[in-house]
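Researcher: Here's the sequence for the chain we discussed earlier.
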Amino acid sequence: MTDPFAFDYPSPLAGYEGLEPLPVELNEDGKSMKNPQNGTLSKAYEEFPDPLAKDRRGGFDVHIYHFQNNPDQVAYARALYERVRREFPELRIYRFYEGPLGPHPIAMFEVNLFTPAQFGAFIPWLIINRGPLSALVHPNTDEEEEERNHTQRATWLGDRIPLDLRVFKLMKQAAKKNNQGGKTALHVSPRDVTATTVPSYVLEYAPMVWLHSEEAYMPSDIGEQLAHTTPMVDWKPIEKAPSATTLNNLDQLNNLGNTSVYLTSKEGIDAEPQPSWFGGIKPDQDGRTQGAISSAIILCDHGDGALDAFYFYFYAEHNMIRFSNGVPQAIWYSQHASGQAFTYGATEKRGKRPIAYSGKGTHANYAISGKHDHTIPGFNLPDGLIVDQTDSGTLWDPMLSAYVYSYDVSEEIFQAYDSGYPVNWLNFNGQWGDDALPGGPELFGQKKYAAGPNGPKFKKLVRDKVCPSSPCVVLPFRIWENRTLEEHEHRTASS
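Model: Thanks. This is the structure I predict for it:
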C-alpha cells in the first residue's frame, strides 16, 4: 500500500484564494449544488494540466494485463488487443508482450493517451470492454516521479496487480550517483537481449566486429559519455541544460540548440595526455564489454516479412542487414559519410554471423581486412591519401552488450524491447562529440578532429534499398583481396 504521507500535496485552491463564498442553493433536482458560472470552460478540456507530459511520451499510459499461463485470459487479451488497434488506430499502441517486462510482473500491452479527448473516449470504453482483465492507468510527469506515478497517482480498473517497484528505486540510485559525479549506471538492470521478444533471427545473424590490433579507442558505454561531456553551442555551455544529462533526458537539449548542440568533452578533444575514458572498454575473451552497454540494435519493420535490422556501434557507424521472412538478403557497411553493400552470401562469417572490420581510430566498417582508402567514398581502394587500416585484432560481439529498439515507420517513434532500456537519447538532435576546433590541424585539407556525428535517427532508418542513397550497388562477392600491387607481386613470387 502506498504511504500517503510520503508525498507533498499542493493546495487544490492555489490560484482561487480570496473569492466570494460559494452559493448554498440547490438546483431544481433538489440534490446538486448551484455553481457560479463564468462562461469559460476549464483548460483541462483542451490539454492535460501540469505536470502531465505533453511531449511524445503522452500524458497517460494504460497497461492492460493478462496472466500468460491462463489460456482464457490470453485469448481474451489478444482479441481485445486487436479490437483496440482497429477501433482506436489513432492511438499509440505497443506490441503484445507475452511475459513480464520491467516493473510489470505479468504479460500486458500498452496504450498511450495524448489528449483529454483521447482519455475521455478510451477509458470509458475500456471500463466496459476490458472483460476479465485488469488495467493500470498512470500519468507521465518528470522521470524522478516514476514510482509515484505508478503508485500514489495510479488508477486501477479491476483487480490491482502488484508491481515490481525495485526498478524505480534502482533508477533513482543511478540518477543520484550520476549527479554526484560517479560512474553512470543508467542501464538499470536491463534484460539480456536474448531474453526479450526481439525476433530470434536478428540475433542469430548479428554481425561480429574485429577491432584493430593497435586500436586505442575501444567501444564505450553509451551513458558513460554523458558523464564526461558538457552540452555546448558555439563552444559555450548551455545555461539552461539539465544539471545532469542522462539517456532519459538528453532529448531536452533539442529545445536549447537543436542540431547545434555538441556533447563536448570536459577535458577537450585535443587534451594531452588524453583522459582514460577516451579508451573505452576492451572486449573480454567472449567479446563482451563488461559493465558497458556499447551498442544499439534498431529494428525497422516494413511489413510483408521485410525487416531492416540496424546494428549501431553506437551512434554513427553501423551495419544494417535486410531480412525477408527471417532470411538475410544483404548487408550495409557504413564507412564515414558513405559505405558499401554486399549480399549476405558474399560476406565473411563466423557461423551464420557476418564479420565487420573496424577502422583503426575511425571505426568505419569494412567487409575485408587490410588498407582502405576513403578519399573517394564507397570505392574502398587499397591505397590512397587517407587510409583506414583494419585487421583481426580484438573480436567484439556487440550483441552481448546492447539495447534493442523498434522504430515505428509511420509515427517515427522508438520503442524499447525492455523497460530497462532508455529511449529518449535516440531522439537527441545534436552531435555526439566536440565541435571541430577552429584552425585545428589538417591532413590533405581534412581536419584531424572532425566535428562529432549525429545519432542513429539521422542514418536513414527508413530506406527503399539496402543503401541509404542511390545509386545502390549490392556486390555479390568481395571484389578484391585488399593488397597493394607490390603485396600481390610479393605473394605471387613466394607462392
